[in-house]
Amino acid sequence: MSIQTAFHRGLAPVLQLLLPGREQLVLDARPDQALLNHIDSLASKNTEGKLTDDERAEYEGYVRANKFLAVLRREAKLMVEAAR
Q: How many CA atoms are closer than 13 Å to the CA of 73, on its beta-carbon side?
């Protein structure tokens, strides 16, 4: 079993609680511009090797959240496509 398959299998029960009837809300959700600007600033500092330890931890949190949201959006998209 691949890592991706195992991840999906482990997360599927939670997604079934969160997504049904809310797929389009998940697909349309976006962070506010101030947060996007802040994350971009942290990303630039990361590229330049200038993050403080606190900033690095914060940036890593945003990266993890983004990965989770990508999975959530992918599953929402699959559910919408399956309903067509």
A: 10
For residues 80 and 24, the answer to whether their CB atoms sit within 8 Å is yes
pTM for the model: 0.79
Which structure tokens are listed for 59? 């940036």
d(CA 30, CA 51): 25
Beta carbons of 57 and 47 less than 8 angstroms apart? no
Burial 42-52 (b: 16+ CB within 10 A, else e): beeeeeeeebe
Pair 76, 26: CB distance under 8 Å: yes
pLDDT tens per residue across span 28-60: 999 999 999 999 999 999 999 999 999 999 999
Quick one: CA dihedral 18, 19, 21, 23, positive or negative?
positive
